[in-house]
Amino acid sequence: MANDTAPDFGNGPAPKRYPNTRPKPAASLVLVDTSGDSPRFLMGRRSMKHVFMPGFFVFPGGRFERSDNMSRAALPSEDEALIHAQAAKTPHAGALLSCALRETQEETGIALESDTLNARYLARAITPPGQVRRYDTRFFIALCDSETVSPTRSTDDELSGIAWIGMDEMPEGRIHRITELVLKSSLERLENDPALSKVTKTPTFCFRYGKPVTEYA
After folding, report:
1. Partners of 205 in beta bridges
2. pLDDT tens across 101-133, in order?
3. N or C: where does the chain have the smaller number of CB atoms within 10 Å of the terminal CB?
4. How far apart are CA 211 and CA 189, in angstroms?
5. Are 108 and 152 in contact (CB under 8 A)?
6. Cα dist. 73→68, 110, 116 in Å?
7. With helix as H, strand as E and coil as C, how does 104-145 read?
8. 210 vs 213: CA distance, rounded Å
9. pLDDT tens-digit profile of 48-62?
10. Comparing C-alpha atoms, which of 80, 69, 77, 83 is closest to residue 137?
């Protein structure tokens, strides 16, 4: 596993105002519209009432629930093996994708089937110690056409302003550093593997000894 120093993640290790809790498993879907000249990403703004990343634009996603184990989504075996190799104690890879799909439907109204989606494992991000909430989030990436996949209003009030956003349209100051890193990983993946058909190195964004690092597996 390679280990490289990453750019500052932003909102790094906080003053010890909060207990150093174990990160909870979570999943997110990076849905990319490739129908135009440049990719656009499905994103929405988190409510200012949230204690975790309030007001930031994010991809749909959220905390893993036990019910996600009941419907394990289809994921390439190579991606499954990679997810489980990264951490011994983690939910089933297909259940994590099911979590991402469930959250996407709840937050954007878009219902997707993994059998036809061809989602791939993209990245992992672990919230640093000392934060008010800590998550071990697996990001999945999938391609679509915005003319056939249209978001509606969030059914759980998690996100507002849901839209397809291009890189030149990102709201200034409203994109968290982790989201920027995942966007960068998405663009690199699309450049090197536009059909999402290959097995590629997957970054994990985390903190080691108080410093942000990116580990590749």
Report:
1. 125, 214
2. 999 999 999 999 988 899 999 999 999 887 778
3. N
4. 25
5. yes
6. 9, 16, 11
7. HHHHHCCCCCHHHHCCEEEEEEECCCCCCCCEEEEEEEEEEC
8. 9
9. 676 666 678 899 999
10. 83
